[in-house]
Amino acid sequence: MIDSILDRFQPTKKRPTPAMDTVGDRGIIGQRGAAAAIDLVICYFLIETPILYVVDFLFRTRVDQLGGVVLVSVLLLFPLYITYSFGFEWRYGRTPGKVNRGLVVTMEDGSHCTGRASAVRNILRYIDLLPVVLPYAVGVAAAVVTDGRRTGDLAADTVVVRTRVEDPADQAARADLETDAAARRDSQSS
Fold first, then answer.
1. Which of 73, 92, 98, 146 is most buried when burial is the number of CB atoms within 10 A of its CB?
2. What's the whole-model pTM score?
């Protein structure tokens, strides 16, 4: 059971086929927000909380001088989240949150997101966060007035689109072909 749950969050080395016809689909804006919320929960509870626990244990007086563990947490979470997003989007084209929501980051032409593009789109999240009083106001405004792209997407020439879901019959046929090809290779090497 846990495997089926984890499969909905786990990026794989084989990148999904982007559905480029969903560029500009306004429904993706909400899905991106849900994916970001999932990723923030992962970053905070699975990555940042253990780090904060160790830092607070080892450097309690230093942490207190900086304003306490809450302030350190706030200062650490955003750079951690940007690094997390950069790594997953560059390597797999999507974060675990995007996997769960069926989204993928691609270049405008449908090719894989490059390291440079991932870095640019994630560093510009700082712009999207402005004003701090109403986080992501700039990012949401940019997405609404454009074809659903944030400031970072516009600068990096990237788009976030839905993934193309393969027909189960096509999946089965491809699996049969791969099995037949593997069997032929094995018989030829024997």
1. 98
2. 0.77
